[in-house]
Amino acid sequence: MKLYYFPGACPLATHIVLEWIGKPYEAERLTREQTKEPAYLKLNPAGAVPTLVDGDFVLTQSAAILEYLAELHPEAKLMGDSVKARAETRRWLSMCNSDIHRTFGLVFGASYFAGGDDAIAQVLAKNGLVKLQSFFKIVNDRLKGRDWLTGHRSVADSYLFVLLSWADAKKLDLSGMDDLRRFQKKMSQDKGVQAALKAQGLI
């Protein structure tokens, strides 16, 4: 099994989960230029990361990869033991992927989406950060009285940890969101998280 990634990007969530599972895997760091080369585009036509290769099976998109790994290794208990528990995991995984990550895309890519117009880009980035605060407030409220988003460690937690690192990189004001910070501290001390961060040269 092989994971293609950029350091600190969304594949870090998969990298963490691979460490939690504890099975052998490879991880290959790419440059943005390499993701546009023909050989890689055969694996991932979007020219993006992550890409997971498991034998002759190639999978892209973070949420799909995370769920695949969780289902492939039920012993790791990263999805939930019941239909409702798995639905909760998918709920928070979807929030991380479809709401928070998507909005970060507007912030990081503001100039692109604004067509190079700096004034529009500033508005996009500013409004994106405000929207992100509202999403993180929802997650903070969810974490009150909980160590994990779903009540048990899941693939959604690894994704949230990565998103919080992006929030810090953009200096997003998360003041008062103490449960998010508690979660972030707990995750940063996790052995699997530390191993993934070290492998990507982030610590």
- Helix and strand content put the structural class at alpha+beta
Strands in their spatial order, largest beta sheet: 2-1-3-4
End-to-end CA span: 24 Å
Q: Architecture of the largest domain, CATH level 2?
A: Up-down Bundle
Give the strand tally.
4
Can you walk through the features of this model?
The chain is of the alpha+beta class. It is 59% helix and 8% strand. A hairpin with a 2-residue loop joins strand 3 and strand 4 (57-60). Helix 1 (11-21) packs parallel to helix 3 (62-72) and helix 4 packs antiparallel against helix 6. The longest helix has 26 residues, at 83-108. It is globular, with a radius of gyration of 17 Å.
Layout of helices and strands, plus pairs?
Elements: E1 2-5, H1 11-21, E2 26-29, H2 38-43, E3 51-54, E4 57-60, H3 62-72, H4 83-108, H5 110-113, H6 118-143, H7 155-169, H8 178-188, H9 191-199
Parallel strand pairs: 1-2
Antiparallel strand pairs: 1-3, 3-4
Helix pairs in contact: 1-3, 1-7, 1-9, 4-6, 4-7, 6-8, 7-8
